[in-house]
Design goal:
The chain has 168 residues and is an alpha/beta fold. It has one domain: TIM Barrel. Helix content is 39%, strand content 26%. It has six helices and ten strands, in the order E-E-H-E-E-H-E-H-H-E-H-E-E-E-H-E. It has a five-stranded parallel sheet with strand order 1-5-6-7-10, with helices on one face. A three-stranded antiparallel sheet has the order 2-4-3, with no helix packed on it. Helix 2 runs parallel beside helix 4.
Length: 168
């Protein structure tokens, strides 16, 4: 069984929220209980590393990683490096590391290093064929431009040897 880890934002209902609330860097649009975090913060990185270690020791099969999109929200070198450090640490367990979304970060990593297998074993992409209209609370067909972008991105990920999953 894979476990969910949110490395780019923090939810206010988590027991550790008050301890790490100071690493928040902005509101997460459409998710009132969530805020983006500074993934470069050493305390946050240490916490995620310890949490990963604990989960690994419990015998999880892998890690389902959410909110590498913080790099899209705050495209700073320090955020890039922080995400990279967190993900490379998780990869040392020799288990699945599946990034949910995070295309801006993953594409930048690939451009810099030529491959993505040092940070992930798979990618899960939401909203390739559908989109969410948050104002009306309904689903719609994704625009052809966005769909084509994600299809190309996912083809590149697959060519790099990682598993590809979709969530619609």
């Amino acid at each position: 069984m894979d476990t969910y880890l949110n490395i780019g934002s923090i939810e206010n209902f988590r027991e550790y929220y008050t301890t790490y609330a100071e690493v928040a860097i902005g509101e997460y649009e459409h998710w009132e209980e969530e805020e983006w975090v500074d993934a470069a913060n050493p305390d946050w990185q240490k916490f995620i590393g310890q949490l990963s270690q604990e989960l690994n020791e419990k015998g999880v099969d892998g890690f389902f990683i959410n909110n590498c999109d913080v790099y899209d929200y705050a495209p700073h070198e320090s955020i890039f490096e922080g995400l990279t450090a967190i993900l490379q640490n998780m990869m040392t367990f020799g288990k699945a590391v599946i990034i949910n979304g995070g295309d801006t970060y993953v594409a930048e990593y690939r451009e810099r290093y030529g491959a993505i297998d040092q940070i992930m074993t798979g990618v899960n992409q939401e909203s390739v064929w559908s989109s969410i209209d948050f104002d009306s609370g309904t689903f719609r067909e994704q625009t052809s431009e966005t769909r084509d972008y994600f299809c190309k991105y996912l083809e590149t990920c697959k060519a790099d040897g990682v598993e590809v999953y979709l969530l619609e």
